[in-house]
Batch of 4 targets.
Target 1
Amino acid sequence: MYLAAGRGGPAPAPAPSAPARQARTRVGSTVVALGAVSLVTDISSEMVTAVLPLYLVLGLGLNPLQFGFLDGLYNGVTAFVRLAGGHLADRRGRHKLVAGCGYALSAVCKLGLLAAGGSTAALTAALAADRIGKGVRTAPRDALITLSCAERDLGRAFGVHRAMDTTGALLGPLAAFALLWLTADAYDAVFVVSFCLALFAVLLLYAFVPGRTPGAPSNSRAPKLRSVFRLPADRAFRRILVTATLLGLVSVGDGFLYLVLQQRLDLDTAYFPLLPLGSAAVYLLLAVPVGRIADRTGRRVPYLLGHAALLGAYLALCSPATGWPLTIGVLLLLGAFYAATDGVLMALGGPVVPADRRAAGLALLQSGQAVGRLLASVLFGAAWTLWSMHTALALAAAALTLALLTACRLLPARPTEPR
Amino acid sequence: MTPTLSLRTRIGAVALAAAVLAALAVVYTVRATDRAQPGAAASGVTLANTPGLYARTAEGTVAAVHGDRRKDTGLTCRRFYAAGTSAVCLTTRPGIPPRSEAIVLDRDLRPRRTVTFGGTPNRARVSPSGRMVSWTVFVSGDSYAGNAFSTRSGILDTKTGYLIKNVETLQLTLGGRRYSASDVNYWGITFARDDNRFYATVSTRGKTYLVEGDLNAWTARTLRENVECPSLSPDGTRLAYKKRVRQGSSDPWRLHVLDLKTMQDTPLAETRSVDDQAAWLDGATLAYALPGRGRGTSDIWSVPADGTGTPVRVARDASSPSINAS
């Protein structure tokens, strides 16, 4: 679940320079710096995510089913925290500070997990604090990206950031498993290395991301919370918010799609962890090109086409295709879906939110989408339980088709293009 | 804020910090690596020549346990169980991603068959005759809720070689009605003497149930709610299991014994929360692991199966008990 897991997380450095050089204009140094922060942070957090089940069961002798129920709760909390983080950043014009606090909180949690030992209460608290850190930093960071580059380059900027971010997500589990191998299951070493990386990312943020963004009006009159909730009164923003929520509501989480894939193929459990890595690799490769296309054609086009790719994934899973063609097809379509919708939504919505409420506005968009997707997964699970996997998939495909048609009408052509 | 420093200074400072953090990470990792202990040397102990209690020691090896004396088998397992003519050893193998193995052993503890799968080892069982072997692993990335966990249970028929990697295809009857759902999870299988009937826990929609299964018919039906990790008594009349007595994550379970004829439930004298599939030491006594003094350690305790008596510690720094009767 890219979104639920706070895909907004930061990622590191080297990838972005190549596309930047060929481009007419360079991607801003702030974007690259934020990308680097995201890359390192994502390595750090995905390392922990990858070994957590092993650590809980084999390291501590705990029953991980005890932790499962927390996920739904987290998603709700994250939506709230995201808004709070966004609003706080806007009020003070301190996006970097608020984002930094989020990163720092998550860094400390890596040690907190280690210190918690076998206490389920302490472990739960550390995991919750980690999620809160993720929630807090996402919107201010995305706002920083929108404020640091020209509106016409936003798609590419987000493409670069998300490509770096996803690189981190891809490397994290590999690094963690390699480390476990190397140390003969020293889980604490994974947490310590993860902490070092997280701290390094905070330092990168501190040193290379400007504190006050030129675009951010350091307004004497801080925006009131009420003004955030009045954002949807703006027609252009409302349309994007409604579209994002509506499409979220029919976007079954990738976790569920992997589950369908596993059932269709009777896949070995050993390969489960590799499925998300497959779609992440596709996302990583497509993020920058799709971002550039978005800048040229208007962000609405890839955003809608991305959801068409998701529809394609549903249909592929319904189709008689099997084996590797099905696996590869679904992973390609899912990766394309994320590449064309995740950063692109921010590039689509950013420009219609006044700069002084940018972070909160983006948080609203992310939360709308996240809550929609959460509901979609719950509904999909219910349909699967009530009827069958195929019925659930067919319903999801029908709903997505309807939502897409509605979205085509809702999103006016070129709503956010430079004048 | 940073603008007062030149780019060069900032790069230098960050590089320095990176070096310090990298050094910390490397030193910690190297020390952690040194901590790993080599496995104990095999002492020639096998099921064939040493009866009694077997358990996993703190070093991760399986040993025959007599009070404080341990005779190591040289096997390294996460979970071990022996009965009849076989034993099963669940291990993890490092890799990207790590994998798990169920190694089926004969009475001389020689490997006869190895099954590889993903997930984290949790429960292992062998039928009284030694013919049927089962295991449960935790799997993540298998659920729509992101980091949530689920379980996978497998069964191997060592006589025919027939392997069921995931028992979720069982035709399940829940509360008298045919039931199928995406969130069905099985764990903690225990076999009857006939190598066909079995009991297990199934969970769906946040509830757990005891199921009675028929291997040949490949069906299962629920008997009762709130039963986890059943363990069938040697005479086949009672099930020891952990019952959820508290919601939430602190101390949720208490060991109970269910009489299968009367369906009467008896709480055992062990009042601490036991998260284990108990093992019958004999027809009247159960053994199980509880957390020990150090982090991640556990001790083996025993308690009478009729609700009387008090718990007794059988072995320190040990887990995964099973009894090798003959």
Target 2
Amino acid sequence: MTADAFLFWFLALITIGGASLVILMKNPIYSALALVFTMCGIAALFVTLDAFFVAGVQIIVYAGAVMVLFVMVLMLFDLKHEVEAFSKGRITGAIKLATAGLLAGLVMGAIFYSSTAVDTVITKQLAAASGDPSKQLGMRLFTQHIFAFEALGILLLVVAVGAVALARSKGGTHHDQR
Amino acid sequence: MGQDILEITINSVKLILIFLMMVQAVPILVWLERRGSAFIQNRFGPNRVGPLGLVQLLADAVKFLTKEDFAPDKAVRSLFYAAPVFALIPATLAYAAIPMSTPISIAAFEAFGSTWGPYLFRVQGYEIGVGIVFILGVSSLAAYTILMAGWGSGSKFSLLGALRASAQVISYELALGLSIVGVIMMYGTFNLSEMIQAQQGPFQFSAFGYTIASTVDWIPNWGIFYQPIGFILFFAAAFAESNRLPFDLAEGEAELVAGFHTEYGGFKMLMFFIGEYGHMMIAAGLATTFFFGGYGIPGITAQELQQVIVGWGYADQTANILNAVLHFLMYNVKFAIFLWIFIHVRWTLPRFRYDQLMDLGWKTMLPWALANTILTAIVIYVVAA
Amino acid sequence: MTSAATSMPIGGIIFLAIFIAIFGTGLIFLARAIGGQRKNNSAAKRDVYECGIPGQEKKESKVSVKFYLTAILFILFDIEIIFMYPWAISFRDFISSGMGTPVLISMGVFVAVFIYGLWWEVKSRALEWD
């Protein structure tokens, strides 16, 4: 086994291990921390694909921002009741089964689709590409995907407005003086 | 990590050495901080144990080791013990990516019946193409240490301190990330070594098709001359990121006892200290790299210095190593100056109030960083046209 | 060794992380072994910190929604800033390839949306702390 193959299998193993811990842990905080670990593993997998900038972004945005919010929220709420509500009863069992089935189908579908549709094209493009991949990302982003980029700016604005509105709606801590 | 067993071994030893260097720098910084604060406040500071109180560090370490290992009953033990260990990881991983000197190239040589090399050893843990992105990402993981410690202690003071500290850290991460967009734009790279390369030599830039250069040699081509606002914002945000005064709200003694490490003592406390000083070192190293030419020596480029040393009668190989040593010393001088500024500021400025802190981060530094970005973009665009 | 722009020694990073984890755990155990346990093990000692009175509140007390709001806004602005990075790194290349104007304008639109968002947050007092 070459070093690269070993690295891939090692990273894949710890990523999947982390992801399994997310669903196997009873305490949601441990689940969230395991998810952080999984995110870091995915970032490492991006590195093995030579997608360095994406790997960095994966860590900054997912592990460093989104999961901080999750962990923060989980640590501040007493989730015991919610945990009990979700771990007992026939209906929750059915929901769990349905979710697991859906997810399994999704993953299988993605694997089948990607194995047939993507591989030949991608490898050719990668072979043709040269130079700094981060710069190529910038070039690509501002030529082909410029509309998506601007739309993303608007989307983020809408989300920010929505978050503020939600935080205020049930009293929140705003003393609205107007 | 390398092609053969020798390179892998040396790279591994190098990584471990960098980690140990960070760990052993902490007692020195603590000593400096205590002596420095005493100097500023017109006191003596520790001066009993050894000359100038230097052995105080050793005494402190022994004292920390012999403290009882203690966890409160309400603590979640796994997180309570894991947090100090994790405090070390982000800081060291990020610091190892900062280049500290010119690379040392070793020509191929014969040993043990086979040919080894040629090698190129960098005086840094690892060279990373997207250096800045990596450092920002890894150091943003430090928020988990704080949250784990705060929640794991099972104390409301710890939890509140952790909450405030993490909210502060993430708020200032925005200003920090935005303040270096101008730097990235100027150098057109994420790589720290390339940035240092761009800052070698005398002050010189091209505008409107003309080349403008300084008439004297000793004014270096440092980033501070192009990005003064960026530097101020970066440095201020770095104080907040490393939880130092005037931004050490997490540890405001009067309100929160000691913040997220209220329940910690002995060696675990020391490990949090190492993490905090580690973030300070990252900030100092990055400020040096972005704005003060990294390991570059003003007035002379790395190649010129190499020629000078060869002119003294050394072989190329030896000259290369000497060159790296000289640049390493230069890096450490700049690094130490920044660390001293960190300490000096701590004993000079009073602490902010929490709302002032958040206002400063969101309403002052973020808009200024945006303005700096826009200004840099427009200037680069106009000047290049 | 590959060129500087395309290298990221993941093996070294993982090695260092694992080394520190082992080293740190070792230090904790060392401190535990040397420090030992004292005889006094009363309930007051094992309790969490409180200023001399028995602990009153539960750990899970209510916390201002402001902290969550700050975290959410941080995520959003962080993503916007991350999107500026590929722009910043390739801006000079765009100028030299004659595409500086459209890229500057498109980034200007993005930044304008960013500034409007920030201005709106300030105006709606979402960033006020009291």
Target 3
Amino acid sequence: MSVNVKIPTQLRAVTEGEAVAEVQGTTVAEVLEALYARFSELRPRIADEDGLRRFVNVYVGGEDIRFLDGLDTPVADGAEVTILPAVAGG
Amino acid sequence: MPPEALRCKECKTEYPLDARYVCERCFGPLEVKYASRSGADADELKRRIQAGPHSIWRYADFLPVEHPSSALAAGWTPLIRADRLAAELGIGELWVKNDAANPTHSFKDRVVAVALARALELGFKTIACASTGNLANAVAAHAAAAGLESYVFIPSDLEEQKVLATGIYGTNMVAVRGNYDDVNRLCTELSGEHEWAFVNINMRPYYAEGSKTLAFEIAEQLGFQLPDRVVAPIASGSLFTKLARGFEEWLEAGLLEGSLPTFNGAQAEGCAPVAHAFRDGQDFCRPVKPETIAKSLAIGNPADGPYALDLARRSGGAIDAVSDDEIRDGIRLLAQTTGIFTETAGGVTTAVLRKLAQRGDIGPQERVVAVITGEGLKTLECARGTFEAWEIDPNANSFEQARERQLTTA
């Protein structure tokens, strides 16, 4: 299962400048683990011991995973996963 | 007390004062850090304020810009003693801060003026925003006045009045098929790809500081005194938390004495992620899909929700939600007791004020300030069907007959 993950500018320093990363995974959790495996400095930036940090939003096909099944949300082949900071707006 | 840096509210990492809003280490929000104000000469500060212009720029010593000016002035709106509304609700002393009296008729002129001033200093030529309506209005107008290009992104189902009052300024208006949170997500993505100043995204630390001027004005208009309680609406939670920050900065600078007022937040039932987190004792907000007439407050994923919760709790306040019917009643109540016609957000604030009074939360000696953030002409639909005109022929007899009918049915 190949998935495209869009990386926000704030994280590209730890993804060797890559704006989109193609990884394997069938759930959001697996996709993130695959990302952490490729970019070792990524995990502490967006995750803590309880899961994702509270100012990190993750979307699958444009929908916030908190409206889906959170980290267990299934990800279809070719799906687009987006990581974004949660501090904009208002 | 110049600004020194941008600092992460979570992990305290510091960054230079440029166009950034997220901590690269922990993804926390950045805010402006100033040099310490303790030991400041309060009398001198007060003199400088009182000698300043009748706009937000009289508070330049507390704002993160080097050149405090804007083509379109903002702020210095009336603080009105609302004795009739106070009597109606059984409140001892009530004031209404009428921020509809801004150039584009909402408090957003304050935040946009600050963000735009800083954007010009940083060399931006284009400004943009994700908006529930009022912000788009302000960005389009301030950009026009300053001669900048602008892009405003709004949900496509916005009130017609807000759309028309924004488009007239000649902005690039982008109506997104989705709700505000969709618009916000899109703009957060776009902000990484375009060299634009998105006022509430990459300029957010500066933008948010503009809301402090509401607190400064309230305190100054009360004669450099604090209210006991503030009732204000919550959408993202930015205004709510920055009101407190404004009071705290003046306490630290010695311009005010006493302690932080009690903070009451107001949300619409149809979009109440912060009120529900407050009720449930949680320190984070579960996002919701908004469904309310209060579109200017329809942010289902509030960025400053955790900080708004913290403020309500540490100040001894609360965050309450009211139904759409209560919002319409609130608009009418404010109009009929103060002469101020507010939009739905002000209806939310007034309805929550009434709820607090009915619940007995407000002490008889308290001085209360209700923050009215926008203008009723922007959400006219809410007034429709709430009254009837007497249609008559143009003669005195017809009028007297109509009046007779009215008196017998009343």
Target 4
Amino acid sequence: MKSFARRFYLFLIVLFLYMPIFVLIVASFNDSKILGTWKGFTLHWYRDFFENATMMNALRTTLVIALLSATIATVLGTLACMTMAKMKKSTKNIIVGITNIPMLNAEIVTALAFMLLFIGLGVSLSFSTVLIAHVTFCIPYVVLNVLPKVQQMDSNMYEAALDLGATPIQAFFLVTVPEIMPGILSGFLMSFTMSIDDFIITHFTRGSGINTLSTMIYTEVRKGIKPEMYALSTLLFVTVFILLFLVNYGPKSKSTKKHKSLTQLMFKNKYTIAVSVCVVIIVGIFGYQLLKDDKEYIGDVYVYNWGEYIDPEVIELFEEETGYKVHYEEFETNEEMFTIVDKKARVYDVICPSDYMIEKMLENDLLTEINFDNIPNLEHIGKQYLESAKGFDPENKYCVPYCWGTVGICYNKNMVNEEVNSWSILFDEKYDGKILMQASVRDAYCVALSYLGYSINTLNEDELKEATDLLVSQKPIVQAYVVDQVRDKMIKNAAALAVIYSGEAIYMQEENDALEYVVPDEGSNVWIDGWVIPKDCQNKEAAEAWINFLCRPDIALMNFEYITYSTPNESARALIEDEDIKNSQIAFPDNSVLSRCEVYNYLGTEGDNLYDYYWTIVGGAESD
Amino acid sequence: MNKTVKKNALFASPYIVWIAAFIIIPLLFIVYYGFTDRAGNFTLENIKAIARPEYYEALALSLILAVISTIICLLLAYPLALILRNMNMSKQGFIVFIFILPMWMNFLLRTYAWQAILDINGVLDVFLAKFGITGFNIINTPAAIVLGMVYDYLPFMVLPIYNVLVKIDDNVINAARDLGANFWQTLFKIIIPLSKAGIASGIIMVFVPSLTTFVISDILGGGKLLLIGNIVENKVKADNLNLAAGLSLVLMIFIVINMVFSGNDESDSVKVKGGK
């Protein structure tokens, strides 16, 4: 009975630990893109994953970093342990104490410390910076595992080997290493696992063009993770599962106990298995890469764009047609992108910020003029959009519009039985717990300020205070402040009302026809995102080729159909076959809508801090 | 002998250089940024910022949630470690198997999966509805965040406790039993005191990450609950590195407290080993 209770408890814990993993594995066979909604069995995510070059690249980077950092950390750590074991206790404690800092310290503090170190020394973030950071946080795990083994070891054995004529190196490898091998091995394995699983530190130290699975997932979380990622994780998980299972429960030598040499042999075998599997995987991925890389190659272009803001096929077509290799990266907010570019932490050739951010970048002298001789396709961009762009780029010298749209309310007709035409509905307690707000400062204040009848660019403190009070009072009835999870939540009927960009609305209607989009009568924001070239760009011609390519009508159309954000490309709009979409008020609102909408302006550092100050008050307010 | 020590010091030198360059110096950068403003002038503003209600309330909430999840982890992990010890599973292999394996499924994905499980109309909701249970929605509440923390950091509590428990000699326990102690007496008078070191390092390993996470609160808290980690991250995103560094310094006070703790714990565990 008692043993039953024990087993039951163990079972419950294992269930708890493995439930989310089970959900993810199921999701990898699920036809629906949305996690937790079953639509039917499929294997196509597995096929897609092998064809997804970006994901393969991220997998390769992750494994290479893990392997290198675990190896370096193990070598450095083990050598240090050999000496530390012989040191005075106080000295040893100091060194161990320092070593353990990355393990005991908050990850975010360690990550920030690395970022400040590299930025402070003017070192561009790159592959090496990630590697350095990973080695550093892996070392404590090596020391933790190896030091006790070294201390337990009888130092007479090593001396005896020397006496018997072995050189110190022989003695080290033949006597010491086998003795402490279990510690080295578990140190290595733990380091490897920690490195693979790390997100925060990689996120803060990675260079342009470098993505591990973690950082890739993080950008995807916002827009809905691609199911290929579940497929990949399942494969990885199953591989390691089988591996560990074989190591632990595979055919063992019968007399494991007492016979030291046999145990050592086993450990050596484990080691061999682990290493050979890693080698096979990495060689496999490299080989795959070689097979794939038979395209003509004339140079690199580093692109920094919003998440889910391009049809991946467009990137492939561009590579095929021009011969440039595209290193494509995504950001989540304008501000995040600004920090990276301003601090020169990573260098990009072409970036796609929003209107007010382009203004800010211009004021900070971060952009270079585009040579429009290289962009003949500019003629396809509607004149009215270039006119609007003058709001932030007065002479149309720095920016080519890419997408535009409005901010409005998306609502579910089945849950909201009244006409929606005012922001006031977002403050109605009737919809307690069914409202989704945007997590970005400007969009949240756009709602409150428009509702109160103020300009969305106001710097008047009284108006901002009033808007802040309004947002604070709204907080208890808000279900969540989200960035891009709006899509999934609205499609799943998990909320009734949401603040959203017009481009998202079209996609969401395709998935759930109960959803409607409206730009409230009080007015709202109209925004333009455009391509710009930063001053420190390494390959301006490639950047211009990229912009020109995206302006080609057929390409702009492909993009529009994929991301569903309104295109300023008039020729592309003319090519749209579906009349409903071509004349959609959501995608291409008429002037009556646009005339009540305002563009965001750059508010200056003072203004930014003011908004940030009030937004933090909303963030800290009671939520119920 | 003295020569070997010197020679050995040579082995350690790359290591010493490494930890000085990549552990100590980055921390000095945090201190520098924390005590300066954007223009590089000395200021205390970044530290004083913690006195703003939005910040210290976030810190207080983080402390409360971290304490709760640490306690839950301890309560779940201790019996578990005891059970595992008594099962005499084929050594550490099994433990590694159970607790390290989930880490191979990316941490973000696992947390995201919890969101799918706990969400309104999510996996759990749909499942419970089959039994007529509705309204069990903890998503976007502190409870969901605590659940996420317990889930992610439980292994860090189980492993150190287990490691200490397996080192306790069976004879010690048997002796207590022979002398008439019942199960609870043995547990409280013998086993727990002998496993103090493991408990201490488990607490440290769970408390610090819980205190400073921003990913779990982001994904499971629906952006409604800001923890101190979220605030630091937001400051980095909002291009205010000095304030981020200042708040990190405040956070590090707790880490220093932990370091003192762990220093004691280390000498303790050495004693345990020495006594054996």
